[in-house]
Design goal:
- This protein is mainly alpha-helical.
- The protein has 2 domains: 61 residues; 90 residues, no CATH class.
- The chain has 5 helices and no strands.
- Helix 4 runs antiparallel to helix 5.
- The longest helix has 49 residues.
- The model has no long low-confidence stretch (mean pLDDT 88).
Length: 169
């Protein structure tokens, strides 16, 4: 069966197709993001209305990470990033975990102060209690999840690159 046989293709055509696919990918992300924003303003801040968009964001990100590490692209991306940037990819990953944890803490703190407080002093108290508890909870979890996923993706990608190099010899 010749269904899965590699066909020789023009490299220019393949690169142009990849550019189009990249544009489609960004378009789908923009549509999902605008849909989420619209639904938040239309229906309120409930997850039920934006669950499909969240699933798309999460699944696409996980899929890309898995495929890039299987193909050995993740290691190359990390090396290219590290050669161009002052901060290493791993440092940025940990920083992103911390920043997202702080932003979640701020969001939950503001929401708690706005939704449940009866006075200004009670709002400040609720904000700080919720903010500190959220930061203590989310930052370690996010940093661990991101650091573990980074290291496992890097190991898989390095193994894929080694296998490709062995196959070329």
């Amino acid at each position: 069966m010749n269904f899965f046989k590699n066909k020789i293709q023009d490299e220019r055509v393949v690169n142009e197709q990849n550019k189009i696919y990249r544009e489609i990918y960004l378009l789908i992300y923009a549509i999902c993001l605008s849909s989420m924003v619209y639904k938040y303003f239309e229906y309120g801040f409930t997850i039920e209305h934006v669950a499909t968009e969240l699933v798309i964001f999460i699944v696409v990100g996980i899929y890309y990470s898995v495929r890039a590490s299987q193909k050995g692209l993740f290691s190359v991306e990390v090396e290219m990033h590290d050669s161009k940037s002052k901060w290493s990819y791993q440092t940025k990953t940990i920083t992103i975990g911390i920043v997202v944890g702080v932003l979640l803490g701020l969001f939950f703190g503001i929401n708690s102060a706005y939704s449940y407080a009866d006075s200004q002093s009670q709002a400040i108290y609720y904000f700080f209690i919720t903010f500190v508890a959220s930061v203590m909870f989310y930052i370690p979890i996010l940093v661990l999840v991101l650091a573990i996923s980074y290291s496992s993706a890097k190991k898989r990608s390095d193994k894929a690159v080694e296998k490709q190099l062995e196959d070329d010899e």
